[in-house]
Amino acid sequence: MTGPARPTRVAAVVVSYNRGPLLAETLEALAAQTHRPAAVVVVDNASTDGSAEVAERDGVDLVRLEVNTGGAGGFATAMATALARHDPTWIWVMDDDVVPAPGALAALLAAADASATPVDALCSRAEWTDGREHPMNTPRPWALASRTARENASAAGGVAVRSVSFVSSIYRVSAVRERGLPIADYFIWNDDFEYSTRIIAGSLGLAVPASVVLHQTAALADTDADPGPRFYFEVRNKLWVFRHARGLLPREKAVFVLSTARRWIRTWRRSQDRAVIADGWRRGVGDARSRPPRPNAVVLAGAGVPPDVLDVVAELDRVQQAWEHGR
C-alpha cells in the first residue's frame, strides 16, 4: 500500500552577480506569488555591488561564494542547498533579472498536476520589457515528440519541449536526486540545455504559456546575437554536450547538431568582429577535445560552498555518473 502523497514544497533558487536592484525585484516577486515558495535560496557569486546585502532578508537562505562560479556553478550550488536544507518536492530556478508574475509558480504546478504523462521539468513564458516573448528563452516545440506526448501536453495547457531555460524553470526533486545537478564546469551557456535534456529524458518537458515572467535583459536579442568573446563558451559547452552528455539519444543529438551549425553560421555572419568569433570557435573546439567537464565537487572546491551543501554536491556527482553509465 502506498502512503499519502507528499505535500508540494517548492524551493525557489536564484543566482546573483552584481545586479542588486534587479535581484530586489526578483525577491519581491517571489514573495508576491499566489503559491508562495516554501523556501528561497540565493547564491551570490562573489558580487561587489552589494547584491548579497540585498538578499539578507527574512526567509532567504543566502550562500555567499568567494569566487564567481558562473551561472552553472551558482545553480549547482543553489539546488544542492535547497536539497540539503529545505526538503522540497520541486526546485524553481531563475536568474536575478527575472520577475515572475504573481501566478507564475501556480501555473507551472497546475500544468504538472494536469499532465497524464509524467512531467519532470517545466518552464515559463519569458517576456521582455515591452511584452513580446523573449527569443532568447523561447523553447521550440519538440519535433520528435510522439502524438500522445503532444496531446497530453496540450491537455495540460502546455507545449511538449525537449529543453528549457534556467530563466524560469522548475524540476521535480525525485528526478534531480536520480540524475544529479547542473554541471558547474560549463560556467555560462548551455548548462541549462544539458541539464534540462538530462532531466526530461524519458519523460515530458512542458513549456507553460500561462506561467509568465519578465526577463529584464538590456536588449531583446536572440541566441545567435553577436556574443563576442563569450562565443568560446557556446562552442566548448555545446561540444561537451554532443561528446559527453547522456541526456540525448543519438537521433536527438543529430537534430541539435544541425540546428547548432546553422546558428553558429548566423552568428559569424552577423558579428561585427569575425576574428573574435573565429578565435572563440578555435579555442572552444580545442578545449572541448582536450577534456570532458570535471565533477562538480572538484570545480566548486575552494569556492566557499558550505560543507553541508558540498556533501550533497559530491553525492549527486556519484548519482549522475551512475545514471549516465546506465544509459
Task: Summarize the structure in words.
The chain has helices at residues 20-31, 51-55, 70-85, 104-114, 147-155, 173-179, 191-200, 231-244, 250-270, 274-290, 296-300, 307-325, and strands at 10-16, 39-44, 60-64, 90-95, 98-100, 119-127, 159-161, 168-172, 204-215. With 327 residues, it is of the alpha/beta class. It folds into two domains: 10-220 and 300-325, Spore Coat Polysaccharide Biosynthesis Protein SpsA, Chain A, CATH 3.90.550.60; 223-293, no CATH class. Strands 1, 2, 3, 4, 5, 6, 7, 8 and 9 form a nine-stranded mixed sheet that branches. Strand 2, helix 2 (51-55) and strand 3 (60-64) form a beta-alpha-beta unit. Helix 3 (70-85) crosses helix 12 (307-325) and helix 8 runs parallel beside helix 10 (274-290). The longest helix is centred in the last third of the chain and has 21 residues, at 250-270. The protein is globular and about 50 Å long.
